[in-house]
Design goal:
By secondary structure, the protein is an alpha/beta fold. The protein is built from 19 helices and 25 strands.
Length: about 550
Amino acid sequence: MKFKSDIEIAQSVKQKPIEEIAQSLGIGREHLEFYGDYKAKINYNILNDLESKNDGKLILVTAITPTPAGEGKTTTTVGLGDALTRIGKKVMIALREPSLGPVFGIKGGAAGGGYAQVVPMEDINLHFTGDIHAVGAANNLLAAMIDNHIYQGNQLGIDTRKITWKRCMDMNDRQLRFIVNGLNGKVNGVPREDGFDITVASEIMAILCLSRDLDHLKENLRNIIIGYTHDDEPVTAGQLKAAGAMATLLKDALKPNLVQTLEHTPAFIHGGPFANIAHGCNSIMATKMALKLCDYVVTEAGFGADLGAEKFLDIKCRIGGLNPSAVVIVATVRALKHHGGALKGELSNENLDALEKGLPNLLKHIENINVKYGLPAVVAINRFPTDTDAELSLIEEKCREYGANVALSDVWAKGGEGGVTLAREVIRLIGEDRQDFRYIYSDDMSIKEKIEAVVQKIYGGDGVDFSPVAQKEIAKIEEMGFKHLPVCIAKTQYSFSDDPKKLGQPKNFRVSVRNVKVSAGAGFVVVLTGDIMTMPGLPKVPAAEFIDVDSDGRIAGLF
């Protein structure tokens, strides 16, 4: 029997007009801006009308440390939302927008999978409503204004060797990581070293996701530090008078995008920061709006719980004043066996020994959520046909020892119906009201202490080694008055450590911090570990090789 691809499934389901989805939430026509029949932006001024309403319950979906075997976090998030709808709850899903880099690179799509998807899948995975392009335009406008200011006389005294602002584009292109521009004569600018980040790793994307409203967005844009003068004084976008024009480019991108699942559960898809580089969560505005519109909001944070969930809890919740009610940790038998040393080609075979060796990875994530953050957790096993009863029983037994129940999830094959058991367990956890949410570090700790707290408590490392460059930057950042900011640690997603080869739950390791920079506009300090890159490259066989469109405009090969 031939299985349908994700895009074939998505194209086979009839969507409801987006106005009908909006009406189910109580959103009137006056707050809608249509992008065709099945997408709409919601005007942020609706929050003024909803201010008196109580917030719903916030459910975070995270996962074990990612592996090539896949975990299905977005699929589980969508399926859980559909399952909650099936059992009579008023629900919204809140996700990030996919970046074109991974879509054409290694993943091939990021709208869920099987019968647990958000649609229109092709639009969401490609240009969608243009938000990411707007972020890139605002970022590059500031870059152009920096170089024009220097060309026109450099009244602010910007040191071209100390410019920290990079250009960006929403594509994986390693060739642009380090460049020299302004060549071939004075008329073409001032020669200097430069480089590109991927758009979703830019500070503008983080600002978009962490701004409460348009005025807050403009304030955050003004606070961006673009580099330093010859006297080592910071220079801001506000001093370059760029914030107003940048906000103009971003005013529509700030409005959350409303779509639906295959089962017509409403979904906000808004903002798209990477979780191994940036903070990895959808926008505060979309989350807060969803909490006012529904009784339950299901959201996710990128990659494993040591990255996306840590940043969701320590950065987004801190800045946005959010308080999660429960956490779902997604795992697969196959991925856990991979963490236990099983080869990729043998993951379909029963292997209790490899599974038991890989389980500490999951158990560490459970401990972090339950003990370190004080939140109730349920493990969702994204079930594969090759999983055996003995393997599933072993996971359930070990998880219960750590105080986390296990629910099997079959949403890829069955949609919401396959997630009802998980949905009921999440509702039961929320009903117990036993969360005691707390952060891993306090605002008044030093930047080094905050980094060490995450490494030791969340990653399980022995400590941190700071390069001389990183130590110098930390001292400068604290001297400028940014000691109080949370830290956003950029590291590999494939390990608790900064070494992607250390699978499972590694012990006796230290994390190397090579550089630190302040994102004063976003409101956090970026910490670069290992050899993490802010501009990814394409793999040997990129997904772009398999994507095509026919003469009728019908897309194929998109996951």
